[in-house]
Amino acid sequence: MSNDLPAGVERRTYDGRERLATQGEPVYGEPTDSDGWRAWDAGRSKLGAMLELDMDTGLDGGETVLYLGAASGTTVSHVADFAGPTYAVEFAPRPVRDLVGVAEDRDNLFPLLKDARDPSSYAHVVEADVDCLVMDVATRGQATVAIRNKQFLADDGRLLMAVKARSEDVTAEPDDVFDDVVSDLEAEYEILETAQLDRFHADHLGIVAQPK
Ligand SMILES: C[S@@+](CC[C@H](N)C(=O)[O-])C[C@H]1O[C@@H](n2cnc3c(N)ncnc32)[C@H](O)[C@@H]1O
């Protein structure tokens, strides 16, 4: 049985191929329809890959989202198309310049030039009890970042996380890295589902979890 896509995410055909799509202003040269829907490229988005792989993200549409590792806004632009208030944390100034441009077309997208390892630096801005914490930070200590940011997540909220093996250890076997990250996360999160994202992103693991 396939999991439902969130409201505001559809499968549409572009160039003869069915793809995920959201409705909003184009951001990265993606194919668009005349009625304002635009293709969501799972090859450029770990969350897109998790939805394409039919992971049960628990997203219904309209959620409050804290997104860590927003870069220039490729994925978070799609999230803001179907979600509610969307707080986008990124610590590199250059991509944040583009992210601010993406937010100009989206009233519900709030870019934050902050370090996700230091949640106290944005705790005064992000509302409490967000429904969803999305993480795509290519950094060492990805489980630690998820644990530090758990404070923002509602008790019944979801963590949707993409782990990049090479960011933890370039020499280790990805499966060993994934085991370690999952084991560290289990101190604070119940793991609901994991899936390798290799069809779209080499050496990445998708994780769906909820706070313990
Ligand atoms: C793989 S890219 C994110 C791509 C983006 N999520 C997307 O799908 O459009 C990872 C990003 O995490 C950012 N990052 C790494 N460590 C971070 C930290 N401690 N705080 C905030 N951002 C961080 C990097 O600067 C980079 O832009």
Unreliably modeled segments: none
Topology as H/E string?
EEEHEHEHEEHEHHEE
Distance between the ends: 27 Å
Assess the beta-strand content as a share of residues: 25-35%
Helix content: 10-25%
Query: Would you report the number of β strands?
Result: 10
CATH homologous superfamily annotation: Vaccinia Virus protein VP39
CATH class: Alpha Beta
What is the mean pLDDT?
Answer: 97
Tally of helical runs: 6
Each distinct ligand: S-adenosylmethionine
Subunit structure: Interacts with nop5. Component of box C/D small ribonucleoprotein (sRNP) particles that contain rpl7ae, FlpA and nop5, plus a guide RNA.
Organism: Haloferax elongans ATCC BAA-1513
GO molecular function: histone H2AQ104 methyltransferase activity; RNA binding; rRNA methyltransferase activity
Protein name: Fibrillarin-like rRNA/tRNA 2'-O-methyltransferase
